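It is worth pausing here to work through a concrete case rather than discussing structure prediction in the abstract. The textbook approach is simple: state the sequence, then state the predicted structure, then interpret. We follow exactly that order.
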Amino acid sequence: MKMNENLKKSQNTLGFKDIRYTKIFYFALFSMAAMTVLGSTAIAPSLPNLQAHFKNVDKIEVLSKLVLTMPAIFVVIVSPISGFLFDKFARLKLIFPCIILWSISGVAGFFLDNVYYILISRAIFGIATAFVMTGSSALIADYYKGIRREKALSMQGFFNAFGGALFLVLGGILSNIGWQYPFLVYFLGFVIFILALKYLFEPKRIAQTKPKKQDSSESKLAIESKTTTKDLSNSGFHFWTFFPVYTFGFLGMAMFYIVPTQMPFFIISILHKGGELVGISLAISSIFTAISSLFYARLRQYFRLEYMYCIGFMSMGFGYFLISIFHNYVLLLVGLIFIGAALGILLVSGSSWLFSMTNDYNRAKAFGFLVSAVFMGQFLSPIITQPVTNLVGLIDMFLVFSMFLFVLGVGFLIKGIKGMKKKF
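Step two, the predicted structure:
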């Protein structure tokens, strides 16, 4: 009771006079939401050293890469399941043990000297990541409504992207000590658990009985994706209602993941730069993902949701177009700035669109499938892009997908214009 009284006396640091939340509450909430991005970034720099350490293991070239991608595979599988469980049971009762499991399975890599045991720990880590990612995002949507939710999702995107950039650098520093040291980063999960346990609270969820009032752009998108009032007013879950959100979430991440999967080869083979610039380049992209996420809510006040998607896809397309035309490292960084900023816009737009169509009892289910779609985009990105690279070459591959992204952007532009005409 005392804690709740203190919360009510506090000021909302997101810019609203909502007196329930403190600064430490925000830090606990958004840190928990951001911890899942450490799944790959923290240990990515240590993979060459890990591979060298286990050089006598058969097929270690493949196994070492699986250490990085194994969590994503299990996030794809488990996220939808976690969504159903979160909507059936209390949020925090599932999140808290999963944070502990996330930390233990993450740190386990430091103590294990068998690559197969490490892979098992990474699979468990992926399961825990699916629960924490789905649950934390559902909590954010439970705590906030309307424009407040837009600001909260922007802040979540900032924490995710900035945390990813920070731990990419930290992982690189620790990997210089030894291949296993980056795994120690996951000890931070225990700190986040203590903060979450102390400051977060279980939201009161109310079954929705009336259609939600949406802004015009969200309403148009919902209607055009065959969302009906009946779909939104009950506590059931209808997969096809949210399918457009999942599709564009998948495409956005699949197109962005050209950066970590193909850009290192471009920097080294085409630009003839050293490998040390690869990490810097990826970090710059992540930083601008954070910046665009942070300013998303301000942009959203002036642009319909269709236009936000248009800006996202067009910006990403322009970034790849720039890289394909001008083979210069400085212009490469400019292109990566556009691509990183585009990802921030697309990810927050996807969450915002999805949460505008959910109620308290189908929110986690719906978001679980979005998490699965986004991670599926990560996993399938090289499978989609490599055949194109083999066919037309690395440089022209960037050009091909820039044209594809421009088409998507123009499609959303037309949809937005039509929506404005119908409005008037």
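Step three, interpretation. The chain has two domains: 1-202, 209-424. DSSP finds 19 helices and no strands in the chain.
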